[in-house]
Amino acid sequence: MSDDFVTIDSQSLDTEAAYRLIVGCVVPRPVAWITSVDRNGLVNAAPFSSYNYVATTPPMLAVNIALRPGTPVGTIKDTARNITESREFVVNVATEATMELMHRTGQNFPPEISEVEALGIPLLPSSKVAPPRIALSPVQMECRLDQVVVLGRGINTLYIGEVVAFHLSPDIYDGRRVDGVAMRPIARLGGPFYAALGEIFERPMLQRPPGGEGWAGGEKEPRKDG
């Protein structure tokens, strides 16, 4: 096979070039549509696509929030400031049905302007944290901040939160499983592009996950040496 790949030394990249490469390569990325509350009770809503789950016992999520581009070092985004101060936030799953509204909350609103008020986003009260949930989302996860990890040269910070309550629409949850297809989640690609679910491929799990769901060996216990 011919090695005709373009090789780029990452040490030579500035922030903008590195960002273009990493978000173009790591795709698709789920979108965390986060609601948070500032010290005056103002509700903020913003999307972040550098996000995933990182633990199951207890369930935990992590979202990377960078400093605002083009601003002095130390200027953090409203969501990051609110999470740091209150130690609470809600991750709402963005879907095809909410994509346009979610995308609009990504504007650079001034700190004194609430995106949910400006855009008329309906909310529901949370059960264990102060930030409210976005009513239009079929999955809402209330989180309490567990750890803050500053990454790299300080531009990016990872906020790790424990999910203390799940709120699931009966349209996508049958009491045991979340129907990811029915949820119709939206994902982020590089640049201005989003993606929906395409063709779905089914393969049995080859190592037994917690609960055994989808495992190729059925409900039989795995070998101890596996």
From TrEMBL:
Pfam families for this protein: Flavin_Reduct
Domain Flavin reductase like residues, every copy: 24-180
Spans annotated as Disordered: 205-226
Keyword hit for Flavoprotein: yes
Family, similarity comment: Belongs to the flavoredoxin family.
UniProt source species: Rhodoplanes tepidamans
Keywords: Flavoprotein, FMN
Cofactor list: FMN
Highest taxon listed in the record's lineage: Bacteria
Record-given protein name: Flavin reductase family protein
InterPro entries: Flavin_Rdtase-like_dom, Split_barrel_FMN-bd
